[in-house]
């Protein structure tokens, strides 16, 4: 069974994505998590480019990593410098990493138009750089930048650049689709040809500018590359790099090759979310393997088939990559969707209750409710229909006042009267808006009875106008996402009055939390 080595460049190439910026602590945390996952190489950055990357190499050296080898990144020497006098090489060696990755030019266009040097001098730059780093005891990975564009433009010269790299002692030669514009067939042909000419192990580095980065990486592995470079969640410049959260399971589960330990694969979805949270990037629900909707089923026929045999509409068991099956309930749902969701909740509705739930669901969705992202609202609906719902407080009244004060912005004040365990609670609270004021007043009344509410917070609030042609009379749908220490859940409210719609979603978010804690 073939061993495939993973090279993660999230900390360098991934950080070049628009709106991503990692702090030093972020980089250390990510490196620890990648090592725990079983990644073989972690590229820490370009030590000669900025102080933060230099600090990273100093700090990461203090950590005892289980598996990963840290790599510093840089380029071949300058055309007018010797390697031992090049400032970038001094910085790379000062990082004291066991591995150094350098890139060089494979495309004659870059040699002449970007470096403004000759084809012969570029070959000497590659040779001198690798030979010097090897003489200093480093494992050297040579990234053949723009290799596939160079191969299409001048096949002989592109191959000559990597032959020189191999003869100079490179431990790996990585073929790069730096512009991200090459199709899988061209990748397959080029890698197959290169393998016959080069004895050094090959790697692949692809970008996603035409949506082929994952496919090109997998094809390259099939053709004989034994190192894959990429980033978690496909972060990277322009359209990003090859997404390792898809490449890894494809290598292990589809090709049958060794990569990370198979038992580590179940942590892949968690790693995707963890690094996404650090990067402050909203997760892509439709991301293959690890996305929240990767194993979501909505159509009634699909759900019925999955209940009978999951393989009918799932290419793998979601748990293999740490994900889960989701059955979405909507007006398209059939009895199978409801029964599946009921089983997950530990409910056992009879035929009459199931029919009642479906009828309620379709009626509410006809009014504008949408339960696909409002899992908590649907669970409450099912419990009400099956008699398993227990109301923990009752609203007697609420009032919201919005006031404009001299010299200040708008201030909202909410007054609520609730009946809790037979007692009336009358509370008032201010907030930055009417919904925030209602939330504050509601919590103020409830937390003395249910202290667990203190660990819950609203993490997202979305408003959708359902019939804009109605103008200010338009019906409004409000989604609220809430979180505590262990769970995330969604609720929905619909009304022609945005405050009423918000109140519905807000109350259900709190009711769900209280019912969950009471189990």
UniProtKB/TrEMBL annotation:
Query: Please, which domain of life does this record's source organism belong to?
Result: Bacteria
Q: What is its EC number?
A: 2.3.3.21
Q: Which GO terms describe its molecular function?
A: (R)-citramalate synthase activity; 2-isopropylmalate synthase activity
Q: Where is the Pyruvate carboxyltransferase domain?
A: 4-269
What keywords tag this UniProt record?
Amino-acid biosynthesis, Branched-chain amino acid biosynthesis, Isoleucine biosynthesis, Transferase
InterPro entries given for it? 2-isopropylmalate_synth_dimer, AIPM/Hcit_synth_CS, Aldolase_TIM, Citramal_synthase, LeuA/HCS_post-cat, LeuA_allosteric_dom_sf, PYR_CT
Give any single GO term for biological process: L-leucine biosynthetic process
Name the residues that span the membrane: none
State a single Pfam family of this protein. Answer: HCS_D2
- Catalytic activity, per the record? pyruvate + acetyl-CoA + H2O = (3R)-citramalate + CoA + H(+)
* This protein's pathway: Amino-acid biosynthesis; L-isoleucine biosynthesis; 2-oxobutanoate from pyruvate: step 1/3
Against CDD domains, the record matches this protein to:
DRE_TIM_LeuA3
Family per similarity comment: Belongs to the alpha-IPM synthase/homocitrate synthase family.
Q: What is this protein called?
A: Citramalate synthase
